[in-house]
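Re: that chain you flagged

S.,

Sorry for the slow reply, it's been a week of failed gels. I finally had a moment to sit down with the sequence you sent. For the record, here it is as I used it:
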Amino acid sequence: MHDGFGLTSPTLEIVNVTGILLAEDGRYLMQLRDDIPTIVFPGCWGCFGGAADPGESLDEAFRREIEEELSIVPEGFTPFTDMLYRSPVDPALVRGKQFYVLPITAADRGRMVQCEGADMRLFTINELLREPKVIPSDIYGLLCHRRALD
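Prediction finished late last night. Pasting the structure tokens below so you have them in one place:
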């Protein structure tokens, strides 16, 4: 059976949660991933988030990932959109990514402690599009979000 991705009988799972962290001025808070060759997209800018643990709901996974990565308890986040993509590590695996919107204030940013990654910074969508190294699937979610606002 052909599935539109050029795969036969793919394994499909939504396992990743991704935060669109939206500042009051419309910029997005992004994480610079560590430049470690053994991780996916090393040295790239990307959204905060990660993989859901077995048995964990996507909402629970998002809450946990934000707490682990930024030392804040996310409040007021909402599901936004999702996408399917082939794993860059295993092309036979089709995965899903659930995007959440999390509004953040200057006070929130003041309480954040980055526990993963090399840096974090606020970007406009146009600034991100000019960056040479941004995770492609995250750009998709951010562009969809920006279009929904316009």
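What I noticed first: Residues 24 and 105 are 6 Å apart (CA to CA).

Talk soon,
D.
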